[in-house]
Amino acid sequence: SFPSNTSIGLDTWSFKDIVQAEATDLGKLSNIIVEVQRSIAPPRQCLGQLLTLLGKKGGGHRTVCTMPTLIRITTRLDASTDRHWNKDHAHEDDSAKPETSCLYAAEERLVEQEILHIRSMYTLMVLWDVAKFYDSLQYDKLDESCTEQNYGHNRSALTFVIHASPIILKISQAVGIMTTSVGRSILAGCQRSQTIARAYTNKSVDKLRGSYGTGAQGNTETNGIRVYHHVDDLTQMMWHHNNAILASKAARAAALWVRETRELEVGLSDKTVIIPTGIAVEAIQLALKDEGVEVKTANHAVDLRIDGTAGAKRNVKQLASRVNSGNK
Questions:
Q1: What is the SS3 string spanning 288-299?
Q2: Closest Cα partner for 115 from 255, 267, 210, 224?
């Protein structure tokens, strides 16, 4: 259900009006929804999107869409199907899938790094970040990925039609001029945005996980890789008991990910960083230089996709004891 005071899109249908509708009218509405999903031809009132421009704490801005009410009802009715698909197709370390938390995932990384340090393992992390991810998605590649992963052509096609509609940009309480086309982009704020983003990147993440070469036995205490990701933010953590071997394997894996971003036609942002400094990092930088990419290094960095306010409220010193006690 939706709160009665939820913001409404450009179709101007309020959820309060929907709640107060007669049973016969709701029956007609359900027929419209079924026909929209079947024909991939939404009503004209749904072919316009309201985008709100929000400032970021670190500067810049992001846009969030208030989808038309009819489309929000349609995607909510499909939420259970989408949820099952996401649980079945998300990777183990995907912190955007249902019943997960990006904050808990970051805490797990901290604890695992401490454990690896205690075991005298050489470790490093690459914090990858894609620039304007939703604006870069290619519909042909996205449709192919959705089809390969059995997401459902009608659901993905309807999403593309809605997201490619003209927009009106809202800044604070003011409404700006209409843009005739948003191009091939996916709008943040749609219930399906994270789902189709997952479909878009899943194959590439699979390749990255396999590129490190842990062997048939998979990760061990002395050799392994974990690829944590949250939509377009990806943390590649690698470890090995031999620093030279770590350098070679990590460089190969990092170079592969750069090639995958090019295949997906997305670009890396300047937030991407390698930690900590050392010979393994130098090997990665050399491999990336051959790919025409420069990535900065640091001894410390802010983990991506973690809300600063929420993170500041957590006592890092208690992480290990809390995890050991099972009280997460």
A1: HHHCCCCCEECC
A2: 224
Are the beta carbons of 57 and 174 closer than 8 angstroms?
Answer: no
CA-CA distance, 275 to 298, in Å (whole number)? 5
Count H helices and E strands in the chain, helices first. 13, 10
Tokens describing residue 95: 């912190």
**CB within 8 Å of 165: residues ≥ 6 apart:** 46, 47, 48, 49, 182
Task: Kindly list the distances between the CA atom of residue 13 and the CA atoms of 45, 72, 73, 104, 107, in Å, as whole numbers in the listed order.
Answer: 10, 11, 11, 38, 42
> What region, left, alpha or beta, does residue 286 occupy, with left being phi > 0 and alpha being psi -120 to 50 degrees?
alpha
More confident: 200 or 177: 200
Q: What span, in angstroms and rounded, lies between the C-alpha atoms of 107 and 276? A: 18
Cα separation of 204 and 21, whole Å? 46
pLDDT at 308: 37
| Measured CA angle at 301 (ends 251, 241), to 5 deg | 45
CB 253 within 8 A of CB 236: yes
Q: Which residues contact 119 (CB under 8 A, 6 or more apart)?
A: 221, 222
Q: What is the mean pLDDT of residues 267-286?
A: 86
- What's CA 218's distance to the chain center, in Å? 25
Tell me the C-alpha distance between 313 and 4, whole Å. 32
